[in-house]
Amino acid sequence: MRKLLLLAFIVAIGGYFAWPYAFTVVPIDDDGAPGEFDPVGYVDGIWEQLDTTTRQEAVELSEILAAIRPDAAGRAQKEDLATVADQFGLITAGEAHVYMVRATGTITELDTDTSLGTIELDVDGYDGPIVARIYVGPRIPSDESSVRDAVGFITFGTFREQTEYGRVSSEINRRVITMLSALDGELVQGASIGVVGAMTIRTFNLVEIDVSRVNIVPLEIDVR
After folding, report:
1. Domains recognised in the chain with CATH numbers
2. CB 64 within 8 A of CB 86
């Protein structure tokens, strides 16, 4: 009986001290209920920081690509890619390697056969085998979260659930598409551009990763 009482006391004390750390802080409405998450308002609040962070901390894409050394099949070892990510980007909890990047170059190919429009860029300062592809819309893949993840200050623990976290990424991408729509007709083969954005190399549960192509979500494209 004494052992049971002692165990109950320990559990109660442990629960008391652990309680403040078991929950995520969420907005509360005036009636005391948790507020509906507003991804537009959230992104409005962090957009200037996101834009400034990306512009100031972006790494030359040519340097990142030069550090990645794929084999003849376009594949690289996960441990080698981790070294590159540690130097130039971040590794997320899900083992994705994310980078804030900048580049200049020439558009060599424009693909608008599907709504996932892309351009391929001949990156200035890089002459290796990796193809750099930039999303130009009118749609970005629904699972694309490069910008959200690469800036480093938008973390999952801030949100109540995965859905809210995903809605932030969707809202960022929606704004990217709006920006890109203003460039309609300017992104043509042979055009010289500058780009600032983010990219992801997914490595979860993999040993060898196909790096023959990287995909970039742009925050800015400057047609020159």
Report:
1. 39-223 (2.40.50.140)
2. no
